[in-house]
Amino acid sequence: MKALCFMEFGQKEVLRYMDVPHPVMKEDEVLIRTKAIGLNYADIYRRKGHYHLEGEPPYILGYEGAGVVEAVGKQVQGIKIGDSIAFADVPYANAELVAVPFHKAIPIPDNIAFTDAAAVLLQGLTAQYLVADSFPVQQGDTVVIHSAAGGVGQLLVQLAKIKGAKVIAIVSSALKAEAAKKAGADHTLTYADNWTASVQELTDTKGADAVYDAVGATLMQSFEAVKVGGTVVFYGMAGGNPPLIDPRMLMDTSKTLTGGDLWNVLTTRENRITRAGELFQLMAEGKLLLPSITTFPLSEGQAAHGLLESRKNIGKIILLP
Question: How many CB atoms are closer than 10 A to CB 117?
Answer without folding.
Answer: 30
